């Protein structure tokens, strides 16, 4: 009898140990490698991004289809500009139809600019210059700022939807450190966004993609982008008034304009510096 009891206790202990190990494994206590679900999440994120891009490209196709009928030569010029020659050729076509088909041209310009910004596709700088050639300065400036703000915000949301889960899964410690740094300066985030938009320290696509990862609010991000891109856009639009005298995008920026941008960037960050000094004195 005693022998049977001992055997029964041993069986119960083994069963309990196995149950404990299964529970720990499910909870992830002993899992050292990346879980399979992470790969699944990455694939799902990629599929979502591909679906969104396909929908956006379809919208662009519809915009193009509703554009006035073009000749074969004009169709060849209707491309996303990669240099000033492309921008000049595109400007020739759009200016020809702008007065007669004002709404179609404006919608095409707006949709193309937002599309480029949303998916971080190069070419928006040439559209900014082109706006100064096509439209009056106040309208051109508002249009570029609005397109930049909306396009960057859509890119922000794409990064939040697709990139943020991946970063938090595989770069957890870095994401936490970035978020902690943002939390320290949360009341001045709009100043930092404006400063980064004016200055060339970080590329715009990098700011768009990383902002949701470090928990920058979307409203602050949009406003900071809208007002932050205004000074550089001012320079580009002003250069667009003499579009056909330009040979490269670099000619749109002079030393005087760089000095003005530097001063504006300094003004955008001054409130932060003054408040920090004031807080130090009060302590």
Automatic annotation (TrEMBL):
Reaction catalysed by this enzyme: a 1,2-diacyl-sn-glycero-3-phosphocholine(in) = a 1,2-diacyl-sn-glycero-3-phosphocholine(out); a 1,2-diacyl-sn-glycero-3-phospho-L-serine(in) = a 1,2-diacyl-sn-glycero-3-phospho-L-serine(out); a 1,2-diacyl-sn-glycero-3-phosphoethanolamine(in) = a 1,2-diacyl-sn-glycero-3-phosphoethanolamine(out); cholesterol(in) = cholesterol(out)
Primary residence: membrane
GO cellular component: endoplasmic reticulum membrane
Region (Disordered): 1-25
Record flagged with keyword rRNA processing: no
Pfam families: VTT_dom (PF09335)
Topology in the lipid bilayer: Multi-pass membrane protein
Compositional bias annotation for Basic and acidic residues: 8-25
GO biological process terms on file: autophagosome assembly
Entry annotated with the keyword Transmembrane helix: yes
Subcellular localization, as worded in the UniProt entry: Membrane
Signal peptide: none
Family the UniProt entry places it in: Belongs to the TMEM41 family.
Function, as annotated: Phospholipid scramblase involved in lipid homeostasis and membrane dynamics processes. Has phospholipid scramblase activity toward cholesterol and phosphatidylserine, as well as phosphatidylethanolamine and phosphatidylcholine. Required for autophagosome formation: participates in early stages of autophagosome biogenesis at the endoplasmic reticulum (ER) membrane by reequilibrating the leaflets of the ER as lipids are extracted by ATG2 (ATG2A or ATG2B) to mediate autophagosome assembly.
Protein name stated in the entry: Transmembrane protein 41B
Native organism taxonomy: Eukaryota, Metazoa, Chordata, Craniata, Vertebrata
């Amino acid at each position: 009898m005693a022998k049977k009891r001992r055997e029964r206790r041993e069986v119960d202990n083994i069963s309990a140990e196995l149950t404990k190990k299964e529970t720990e494994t499910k909870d992830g206590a002993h899992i050292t490698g990346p879980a399979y679900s992470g790969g699944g999440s990455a694939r799902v994120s990629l599929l979502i991004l591909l679906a969104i891009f396909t929908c956006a490209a379809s919208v662009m196709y519809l915009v193009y289809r509703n554009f006035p009928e073009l000749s074969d030569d004009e169709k060849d010029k209707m491309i996303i500009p990669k240099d000033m020659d492309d921008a000049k050729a595109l400007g020739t076509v759009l200016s020809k139809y702008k007065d007669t088909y004002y709404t179609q041209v404006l919608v095409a310009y707006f949709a193309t600019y937002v599309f480029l910004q949303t998916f971080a596709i190069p070419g928006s700088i040439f559209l900014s210059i082109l706006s100064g050639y096509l439209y009056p300065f106040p309208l051109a400036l508002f249009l570029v700022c609005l397109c930049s703000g909306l396009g960057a915000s859509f890119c922000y949301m794409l990064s939040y939807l697709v990139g943020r889960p991946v970063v938090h899964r595989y770069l957890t410690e870095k994401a936490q450190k970035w978020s902690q740094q943002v939390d320290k300066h949360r009341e001045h985030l709009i100043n930092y966004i404006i400063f980064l938009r004016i200055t060339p320290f970080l590329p715009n696509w990098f700011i768009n993609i990383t902002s949701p990862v470090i928990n920058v609010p979307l409203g602050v991000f949009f406003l900071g982008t809208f007002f932050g891109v205004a000074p550089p856009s001012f320079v580009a639009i002003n250069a667009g008034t003499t579009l056909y005298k330009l040979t490269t995008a670099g000619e749109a920026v002079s030393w005087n304009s760089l000095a003005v941008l530097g001063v504006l960037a300094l003004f955008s960050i001054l409130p932060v510096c003054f408040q920090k000094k004031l807080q130090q004195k009060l302590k």
